[in-house]
Amino acid sequence: MAPALSVITVAIALPFVAAAATPLLHRLIGERTGYAGAAVALASFSLLLTQVGERGAVSFPWVPSLDVAARFYVDGWALLFGLLASGIGVLIFAYSREYMHGDEHLARYYATLLAFMGSILGVAFAADLILVFLFWELTSVASFVLIGHHTDAEASRYSARMAMVVTVGGGLCLLAGLLVLAVAAEPALGARTFDLSAMLANPDAMEAALRERGLFVPALALLGVAAGAKSAQVPLHFWLPNAMVAPTPVSAFLHSATMVKVGVYFVGRLRPLLLSPEWTYLFATVGLLTMTVGAALAVAATDSKQLLAYSTASHLGLMVAAFGFENAYGAEAGSFHLLNHAAFKAALFLVAGIVAHEAGTRHIDSLGGLWRDLPVTAAIAGVTALSMAGIPPFSGFYSKELLFESAYEWAHHAGGLAWLYPAAAVLASVFTVVYSLRFLSMFVGDRAADADPVHRAPSLLVAPPAALAVVTAVVSVAPGVAVDGIVQAAVDATAVGEPEMHVGLPDHVTPPVVMSAISIAGGVAAYGVGGRLRAGVGAATDRDALRANWWYDRLLVGAEAASARAGPAVHDGSLRTYVAGSITAAAALALVGYAASVTALPPATRSVPAAMALVLAVAGVAAVAVMIAPSHVAEVLTVSILGFMVAIFYILASAPDLALTQLVVETLVLLIFLLVIEQLPAFYGDTPRRVLARDAAVSLFVGATVFLTVLLAGREATAEPTAVARYYATEAVPQGGGTNVVNVILVDFRGFDTLGEIVVISVAAISVIVLITMRNRGETQ
Amino acid sequence: MTTTIMKTTARIVVPIVLVLAISLLLQGHNLPGGGFIGGVLTTAAFALIYVAHGLDYLEVGVLGQDVDPGTGVFDHRTVTAYERAFVVGLAVAVGSGFVALAFGEQFLSQTYAIVHDVPVYHEIELATALVFDVGVYLVVVGGLLTILTVVGAE
Fold first, then answer.
1. Is B140 in Cβ contact with A755 (below 8 Å)?
2. Which chain A residue has the Cα nearest residue B94?
3. How far apart are CA B99 and CA B130, in angstroms?
4. Which parts of chain A sit beneath pLDDT 70?
5. Among A121, A161, A289, A704, which has the highest number of CB atoms less than 10 A from its own CB?
6. Which long-range contacts (CB under 8 A, 24 or more apart) does B61-64 make?
């Protein structure tokens, strides 16, 4: 049975519609908008739930002429991602209701959050490359607004901008990569198409077509950069910790199940298409590097949200690396960990929010013994942090075991240096255990002596993370339930072939079990020397050149300085420079076009009637007179003579509409000149000779180009009309009902062009109003 | 430029120009003319008034309104009217395109009908393109006059 298009479309469109209605809703029910958001998320979640087990593509045409369609592809992988985003969305909205209590910009907050959720669902189900890109960029834009929620804080603006630059930069790489895929689809699928589901159906043909053209590595690199930027892979991970300035619910949503998972999701989506040794080298290396670096930085973090942010980067690395390995375990590890990580990380972020809310600080070292005041929260943190650490029998253990399995498997198969991969995975896991225990240290032990009293958290704040903890606990106790329910279907979509997935506690010693044992034992041991370890990591990473953030700042400052230098050279405020530049460029481009397309010059001899010759001669004289005119009035009048001569020329060439237009425009220009002429200074000062010479050269160049254009485009009056002209002349009356061909073309055959032109006029009018208003307010800068 | 010669000329010429502009707009489909030409010509007529009488003349002399000497150009009722004109024109043009969609045609498709047995004219052709053209006309008039008035006031 095919998935129902209407259900999927409604599930994606609903958040957007709700986002548009939010301002009004907020006016009506105020802070309770959070519940409305939760209801919308729940509706999307329920709609998607009805599609579980479906697989297939549905579409309706959007831009048929370009073969762009609103295509949605439903399978286990998309459903897993979509269900996570909407399900956790429900909890985030409910949590926001209490947490964002009293915030000033609630309407904007909820509207953006809804739009963001809709975009994520769009990415999950879009099966058209254009649509994928569109939703991908929408998530970037929405997250920019969400991260920069506190618009009055400099740090918040800085971080929002950073997230935007990195993820949108990645988005541009995505666009290029998607276009490469679309080009490769032509030989592979018989037509240039943006249909991702068709590509996924023929992975071998696509790969062969890409390789044949030498596009395989570029496509892989471009898509890799895009996914890496979105999923905070080293060296583009620096935006993620900075994004922690956002309100906690936003962090929890963005960094658990949605924004940062988009890259991972896309890697999993393209895995069957591009799986190859290059794929493994790229993603396994980047993923494990990120996993290790992120975990090490998380160990050194002192702020609870910062710790979770680096840990998120580390776990994203885990998933990317898992998808990188070319065996079935990789797909299983990636898919299963996507679910586990979303559940425990969202819960941990919400827990960190509760602690910050109730204890008034996020500094880990100054907190302790919170289990007395926040027992439920402590229990939630226990379950989820142990899952994060990968301690058996918690859910994170199973997916990490699968990663070890795939890394070991691959190293065994490749040999040599490939053994570094499992080694790196173990090292990162040691760090993971250390920072998970560190996070838990806030809840155990004794309270700090000078700590402020901690309030009991409101149940509304505790309920969402508790629900996630229950999910984690269920998966921990009965991993088979999750596998049968959805993960197996996701694995089928991301793996090559049909692997049967088995999870459970190990019953005999295998290499992955040994790796797990090493990482847990090592982690507990390392936690004992935590202080020294932190100092060591801190000292090792405390160099500017090692900080991606520092490079980003250097780049930004450098770009600003370069702009400041280049700006005045290009933008000197003189109209003369702009006109010279733009018409020279236009003329040069026209010449390039002729050089590329014209084969032979037509004969330069044309028969010109005496009347025309006379009119053109007068125009020539007028043009000379303009240049030597002694005053503004003389200049205006001579320019008008020139214009009217051209109008007469049109009449002689039997083009009444052109002549009329030329006449009225010329008249209007003359009148406008008369209006402003009194205000102009009589004397502008001497122009430097260099500028005069440049202007003369530009004029000659443009004049020559126009001459050439007329020569090439002009036709003998006796020549046969072209096919286009014939078509318009014969079809004007039957199709447009008008005998004035020019007008019929304007309003009927080429109506859309005319619409564009009148939009230009309107924009010009609006611009003038804006400019003058700004000047009246004194904003001349 | 507000000389007696100018004022007298404007008084005679402006009505003629306006009538001509409207006729160019209406007959554009079958004879030389159209929305753009009509619009520019109308603008020229207004520009002539401005040259002859100054910017406040329309409100003071024609409509009999008082103008506070201190108001900025944006508080002029005429300017608001011009702004409204090009917004309405844009809406009319785009709207005429959407009407085609309602009939299952492509955006901006036009059609026409010939009405017979009309007194005086015998038969009149009604083209939907005229609606679009009126939109063009309004945008041109509103846009150009906005620019002209605002810049002129400066």
1. no
2. A755
3. 13
4. 1-3, 448-453, 530, 543-545, 604, 606, 678-686, 716-718, 777-781
5. A121
6. none
